[in-house]
Design goal:
29% strand; TIM Barrel; 15-stranded mixed β-sheet
């Protein structure tokens, strides 16, 4: 297998394109994202999808049909990509019985969902790429006032992954329901779990991440488990608000990666949208289902992740040779290296963004320009790009890459964190 060398041009496109601070508590001082000896490939997927096990989707089919639908579409999608494709994945995340306003999923249904994710009919393991099914669940909070429970403005929507049961999170007593933070912390108590802050900020529901007032306070236990935040749901107008919430999460001290969760409620629509979450991981060909899941989850935990509105974009970057997702000592300068290519669009602009003091109070931030600065910018106008640049990093706490395609689609990567246990403080 070839070693991955960030900053070296990947040959050729598949086809030409059409025309004031809260105290910061870092978990570790130096923690480079693990690098495999194998080439890192792109795995495209969706981290938020509903089947008929969700109460607002009862006339739809079971989870197995969602994975089959996604699997059926992967050969066509794969035809647009070159050698950087590793495969596809889909998390089915049905609602847990918590709102008491509809018959959502209890633990018996969740165990069926888990069993269906292991079904051999969706165990695609080659010859050219893999498809990997994941089981999850979505929690929706309550307001504890009046006779009719509704959304809790200290909870919102959260996706839970890698748990054996949802029994600890199912509502059983409407008169004495759990608080949102109690449920979140009960989930976060197990370091093997993985969680996601759902929904880019939109609408009037007080969902997690709508603004800084509805974003959970940082704790090391929550940070250890909640590693994703949705920045897009395949609706372009939600992008700016979603990425601003990503920055707010980073400013609070969370080590999160941006993801796309389409929130589709249609089991026949698996992976139909353009937007994707992408994991960078070694080849999973010839691996068992459990091995493939472990490889992809390891990449997710390491922060080798980006969110994109284009399902054919390949994007990688590093700072001083360390991959995105790394947690490094602070420094005054460093060298950025970026490679990118797109199979169906010209890359018009790339930027390295870093945190800065916001122009407005945190509860007023609604776009990333209010709290970031540009360290480097390129305008390639080509379907492939490679570049490197020395940048000043004094005062930088985190930085990430954002990219635009001629179609108007964009992407944003996981950050690299510059932090020190002795001097760490938020911007």
């Amino acid at each position: 297998m070839r070693r991955i060398l960030l900053g070296i041009l990947i040959a050729g496109c598949a086809r030409q394109a059409p025309e004031p601070a809260v105290p910061y508590t870092p978990a570790v001082t130096t923690h480079p994202a693990p690098v495999s000896d194998e080439e890192l490939l792109c795995y495209y997927g969706d981290t938020h999808f509903h089947s008929g096990y969700s109460g607002d989707n009862r006339r739809d089919g079971p989870p197995l049909e969602a994975w089959k639908s996604a699997l059926a579409r992967t050969p066509e999608a794969a035809s647009h990509l070159g050698g950087w494709l590793g495969g596809y994945f889909l998390f089915v995340t049905d609602h847990v019985t918590y709102t008491k306003t509809r018959p959502d999923m209890d633990d018996a249904l969740f165990q069926k969902l888990r069993a269906q994710s292991d079904d051999p009919s969706i165990d695609r393991s080659g010859p050219d790429f893999t498809f990997t099914a994941f089981a999850g669940a979505e929690m929706t909070g309550l307001r504890r006032g009046g006779d009719y429970p509704y959304f809790d403005d200290k909870f919102g929507h959260l996706n839970f992954f890698l748990m054996d049961s949802i029994a600890p999170y199912v509502e059983t007593d409407m008169a004495n329901n759990q608080s949102g933070e109690t449920v979140m912390d009960r989930f976060a108590a197990n370091p093997q779990h993985l969680g996601q802050f759902n929904h880019p900020g939109y609408g009037e529901e007080p969902r997690t991440g709508d603004d800084s007032q509805h974003l959970y306070p940082y704790t090391p236990e929550r940070d250890r488990v909640f590693r994703f935040i949705e920045v897009n749901d395949d609706v372009p107008k939600h992008w700016e608000k979603g990425v601003s919430q990503y920055n707010l999460c980073l400013r609070r001290g969370y080590h999160v990666s941006p993801v796309v969760g389409t929130d589709i409620h249609n089991t026949k629509a698996g992976l139909t949208g353009q937007a994707r979450t992408v994991f960078l991981a070694p080849s999973t060909l010839g691996k068992s289902l459990q091995e493939r899941r472990s490889i992809l989850i390891a990449a997710a935990r390491a922060g080798r992740v980006y969110a994109t509105e284009n399902q054919t974009l390949q994007l990688q970057w590093s700072l001083d040779g360390q991959l995105m997702g790394s947690r490094l000592e602070r420094r005054d300068e460093g060298e950025i290296q970026v490679t990118a290519q797109c199979a169906n669009g010209l890359i018009t602009r790339l930027e390295v963004a870093a945190d800065r003091k916001p122009d407005v109070s945190e509860d007023k931030i609604d776009n990333e320009s209010q709290c970031t600065r540009v360290l480097a910018r390129w305008k390639p106008g080509q379907c492939q790009f490679q570049g490197s640049r020395k940048v000043k990093l004094r005062g930088v706490h985190y930085l990430y890459v954002r990219l635009w395609i001629a179609t108007g689609e964009r992407a944003v990567t996981a950050p690299i964190y510059l932090e020190s246990a002795s001097t760490g403080s938020k911007p």
